[in-house]
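mind reviewing these tokens:
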Amino acid sequence: MSESAESGPNTAEDMPADGAALTGSREKSKGRMSAAIEAYTLLFLALLVAVLFSELPATSGVFPTAANFQAIAGGQAVLIVATLAVLIPLICDEFDLSVGANLGLASVVSASVMAAGLPLIVAVIAGLVSGGVVGVVNGLLVTRVGVNAVIVTLGVSVIIHGIVQYKTGGKSITEGLPDSWLSVGSESIFGIPVILLIALVIAAIVYYLLTYTPYGRQLYMMGANRQAAKLVGLRTNWLLFSCFVVGGLLAGFAGVLQVARAGAAAPSVGETFTLPAFAAAFLSAAAIKPGRYNVWGSVVAISFLAVINGGLNIAGASVYIADFVNGTALIAGVALAVFLRRRRGA
């Protein structure tokens, strides 16, 4: 009896401790599983949609072919870089609505330089400078003059549209473009479009900048709480200015890539990139790193939208269906971003 009495309390004391440890372990495991599901749901949905279009009678003959996947992948390269141009200011909680127009201007500038017979590197630099100048103008008006970024970038995009129409007369630039650059938009390496590889290299550079440098961490800090960032000594005006400049340079390079992809510089091409770029940028907060706008989440979001639009196109859906898809994706992306950021903050 005495041994039982002595051992009884020890057993009673031990069991809650073991139970608490087991419960804590299970909760951590569930938390990790939940986080993984949340991070890769969009990627899984993209694969699921791809399987669906591969099995549907209307699309099964074309959609699952290597040629179709190459076309879809190559067609998203310019959008990847354009989305990165949107993403950088968005991390700072600002909107650059001039990205599409800036892309179009850079494509016209670089194509004009190519058509003039100047070296290819000069044309690429000209496109980058064009995009960078627009970024500088946006940044100065926002940080020095104090105009709201939405108003500034919307106004700048309208001005750019006028400049492009004046420069081109409403006609595409198609002649005098070097084959060496046009081949970048059409050739593949081991079945992967060269232009996509270039876009992914740019994405990797931006990912490194945002993830592994003090600059990137400061951008995220400022986007999370600008007042707190200012209180800890960050140069918020300079960071905000740099966001628009970096975004402008990326938009400029996207314009140069567009020349290679399309084999021409169309005066209104930039308008087609604005909505998809914003949709993908917002949806990035629901993939890979939920609650945070991120590079690879953007790539996953672009893949998701590309698979849907590509399948619908093969199925013979009307052109305006893509607008429905991109518009819905933009609304869903904003809603998810707000929800996940609030939950993360809580």
User: Anything to note?
Assistant: Confidence is low (pLDDT under 50) at residues 1-9.
